[in-house]
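ok posting inputs for the coenzyme A job
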Amino acid sequence: MFEFGDIRLRPIEREDLKVLHEWENDFEVIMYSRNMPINFVNMPQLEKRYEEWVKDEREQRFIIELVDSKEAIGIARLEHKDWANVRSADVGTYIGKKELWGKGYGRQITVALLEIVFNQLNMDRCEASSVEYNTRAHKVLEACGFRKTGIMRQSAFVNGRKWNRVYFDILREEYLKIRVELLKKVLGSKLDAYIEKHCSIKE
Ligand SMILES: CC(C)(COP(=O)(O)OP(=O)(O)OC[C@H]1O[C@@H](n2cnc3c(N)ncnc32)[C@H](O)[C@@H]1OP(=O)(O)O)[C@@H](O)C(=O)NCCC(=O)NCCS
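and the output
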């Protein structure tokens, strides 16, 4: 388990499939996270997916829960995408509890993923992408140091029209330059406890 400020990242257990079933069939959550809002999934299909996740060693999937209440609020994923000698990660997340959108958890989740990518897994770079209408997600990625690298034109069709997919990335050296500032911003008063437990930051 990885505790980061107000949130904890933990493995997805079979008992979580009930809440996942709700989120994975939520039109808005899936419209923003995967731009295929009609891809409904029933429980047997979700169980089958879960069995595949259990075997998959290239992708880690986490439940995001609140530290204080242990309430599950969303999921995050981290895919290992090594190319030649470059260790690359691709990350994504959604907050299934829509009433919690816009309260700063997205930034915390994103920085938590960056900490895992760079401070725990020693990777070289990290990518993320999102459909063009998801300006909330773009703001979060840019606030966490990601840079826009390009678009895949007209690669999604939602609500009657085609949309571009927007790609972002951040290099290890770029993250290390802004790391302390970012950690201060998202962790606030919990910064010292985090540093004590997980870091050897000397700046
Ligand atoms: C994207 C997501 C993870 C972001 O998490 P969050 O907790 O809502 O984000 P935060 O509160 O940390 O930050 C939201 C930012 O967007 C801004 N914002 C809020 N509502 C917005 C809107 N409707 N349009 C554009 N920007 C918006 C906020 O002001 C904030 O920016 P700021 O830091 O400059 O003030 C979350 O909204 C979510 O799960 N959305 C649905 C699924 C999804 O889009 N997943 C990501 C796919 S890549």
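notes: Residues 76 and 93 are 4 Å apart (CA to CA). The chain has one domain: 2-198.
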